[in-house]
Design brief:
Elements lengths: L2 H17 L7 E6 L4 H4 L8 E2 L9 E8 L2 E12 L3 H12 L6 E2 L28 E6 L3 E10 L2 E12 L1
Antiparallel strand pairs: 1-3, 2-4, 3-4, 4-8, 5-6, 6-7, 7-8
């Protein structure tokens, strides 16, 4: 089983065990590579091309699992652009701002964990490497994230939308 399949199965097991007491619910698992930028809600940087880490890799994937009102869905895409990380990062910081206040994960304040019962979004506890960028926007349960890093003379960037329902 690949890590992608493991994530979907784990989410399914966790969600279905929580929702089993509900007598009226739907149940399902989704996984495919037909993911488009519209699934994330962001445009593709001009001139960017899909990126795969290897022959067995996919440049786009959607994974989801749900049971009743509980669920998880992740849509993710990977690209490469022949331009600087700064230009790509600036483009996505502006695009993400359409959805609210953008967190810049290079800022230590963005990595402070909110209280457990808060729906406030935060970044992971690790700081992006020097010259890398990571931006997030939304809530802890429904957010978009873009990470940009140097790739030779150009930039590699990933974008995703995460939707948790519970």
């Amino acid at each position: 089983m690949t890590p992608r399949h493991s994530l979907a199965v784990l989410a399914f097991v966790l969600i279905s065990s929580t929702a089993a007491a509900d007598g009226d619910f739907s149940l399902g698992v989704e996984g495919h590579s037909r993911t488009e930028a519209t699934d994330v809600g962001l445009p593709v940087y001009a001139g960017a091309v899909p990126f795969k880490d290897g022959d067995d890799d996919k440049s786009a994937v959607t994974l989801g699992a749900w049971a009743g009102k509980f669920g998880l869905k992740v849509a993710a895409l990977k690209f490469r652009a022949a331009t600087s990380t700064e230009r790509v990062a600036s483009f996505y910081a502006k695009e993400l701002a359409r959805y609210g206040d953008v967190l810049d994960c290079r800022d230590p304040a963005a990595r402070v964990k909110p209280p457990k019962d808060s729906d406030r979004l935060s970044c992971d506890s690790h700081e992006p490497k020097a010259g890398d960028y990571e931006y997030r926007v939304g809530t802890a349960r429904n957010f978009r994230v873009v990470s940009v890093r140097r790739d030779g003379e150009g930039a590699r960037f990933d974008m995703a939308r995460v939707d948790l329902r519970f």
